[in-house]
Design a protein that fits this description.
Helices cover 36% and strands 13% of the residues. With 425 residues, the protein is of the alpha+beta class.
């Protein structure tokens, strides 16, 4: 009788065949692209209306995406934008972030999260992550100062932050929270969708994300005034009312940034958001089975999850006992064909000290802003390796494995076998 997938496979049963695993690229949403996305995009092309607000015929797809997003996330307002980065920058503008302000974000993020703070001429303040690889609430509490104006928890590598703890701290200090959900679209914490705990949440629809249109982003909020400011900031600086710019709402006026989503993007995205629950379920199931097969492997443990049921399943993070063990395991896994395995410390622009613009205080202009602005005097931090020693220690002995949304049971077993052998040598 075949062994059930939820039980670990002893090495003797796996054998050492020398065969390399046929492991697909991650790209969760892309594996689910098909006739529905094609039909929607072709409809836009044939209707000759690629702009979201007007055209040869009445546009409908970006509106449909926003309507479906409100229903999916359980919010009153959703705004589609051109990218996840565009969503971050639009929200920073709408929230009024600027010089003389500190914005707290975790050491494990994406470069755009820090970049949006810098583009707003504010100062990023790094917070440690713990063994959940999300914002450490204890360190968050220590990093708050009288200049803190925003907290940005990042739901990284598919898993959710402890939003109960984050919101408790934020509310105590009356600091707004902006959730970065780019890598955990569809995730939940205690039965509630991420992105809905703070003042505003953002999602990315870029190629690597759980739902994708190749590029694109979303902002969600229950605050009507904040939503209107976002609409203004993402476009020409004026809010749109009944399909036209409003010239009388002076409180919502801004300098627009032209970050509208096109109907072509909206067409694909409006289909993908309907597929998102199925995509997540597939990754969660694959991750659960791979973890079960690896359970009990000597020298191996797993990332702590604040809400396992709310995890989107798109990544598996393995913890080894030492940095050298992690490095050796990655090399062995790659040699056996698991090319996407990565030591977390080497995970490019997701790790604070790997972001050269941040480490080197690269300015936005020759004037040296935001680092040299008088309002930011004494606020500038060191962002080189060692600035977050607790995080550095976790990164050094951790391995990141993407979990594609199209794995077969055989691929899951092959991956588990390779990882077991890579860890045990």
């Amino acid at each position: 009788m075949a062994r059930h997938d939820s039980k670990p496979f002893p090495l003797a049963e796996w054998g050492r065949t020398g065969m390399k695993v046929k492991w697909p690229r991650e790209f969760p949403g892309i594996h689910w692209w098909g006739a529905q996305e094609e039909k929607a995009v072709l409809d836009v092309i044939r209707g000759k209306t690629p702009f979201r607000y007007y055209g040869v015929r009445k546009p409908k797809y970006v509106d449909a995406l926003e309507t479906r997003a409100c229903r999916f996330y359980g919010v009153k307002h959703a705004l589609a934008v051109n990218s996840g980065t565009g969503a971050l920058m639009t929200a920073m503008s709408a929230l009024g972030i600027g010089p003389g302000m500190e914005v707290i974000l975790p050491s494990f993020m994406w470069v755009s999260t820090a970049g949006a703070v810098v583009q707003a001429h504010a100062i990023p303040v790094l917070c440690e992550v713990d063994d959940s690889f999300t914002m450490d609430p204890e360190d968050l509490a220590k990093k708050i100062t009288p200049r803190t104006r925003l907290i940005v928890p990042v739901h990284m590598a598919g898993a959710v932050c402890d939003m109960k703890a984050v919101m408790r701290i934020a509310n105590r200090h009356k600091i707004p929270v902006f959730e970065d959900c780019a890598q955990a679209n569809g995730g939940e914490f205690q039965g509630r969708k991420v992105g809905t705990f703070g003042k505003i949440g953002m999602f990315s629809l870029q190629m690597n994300k759980n739902a994708t249109a190749g590029e694109g982003g979303l902002l969600v909020t229950n605050d009507p005034k904040l939503y209107t400011r976002c609409v203004s900031a993402h476009d020409v600086g004026l809010p749109w009312v009944n399909g036209a710019p409003c010239y009388t709402d002076t409180k919502s006026m801004a300098w627009g940034s032209g970050r509208r989503m096109s109907e072509l993007t909206g067409a694909a995205a409006s289909v993908q958001i309907q597929k998102l629950p199925g995509i997540i379920a597939r990754m969660r199931d694959s991750k659960r089975r791979v973890k079960a097969m690896l359970a009990g492997t000597p020298g191996l443990s797993f990332r702590r999850l604040h809400d396992e049921a709310g995890d989107t399943g798109c990544f598996l993070i393995l913890l080894l006992e030492t940095p050298s063990a992690a490095q050796q395991a990655v090399e062995r896994a790659k040699a056996r064909g698991l090319a996407s395995a990565c030591r977390l410390a080497d995970y490019g622009l997701h790790i604070y000290s790997n972001i050269p613009q941040l480490v080197n205080h690269v300015p936005l202009s020759p004037a040296g802003n935001p680092w040299n602005l008088p309002q930011n005097q004494d606020l500038v931090r060191d962002y080189g390796r060692g600035a977050c020693p607790q995080s550095d220690a976790w990164f050094a002995r951790s391995i990141l494995i993407p979990i594609p949304s199209c794995l077969t049971r055989e691929q899951e077993k092959q991956a588990a076998r390779i990882l077991h052998e890579a860890v045990t040598g």
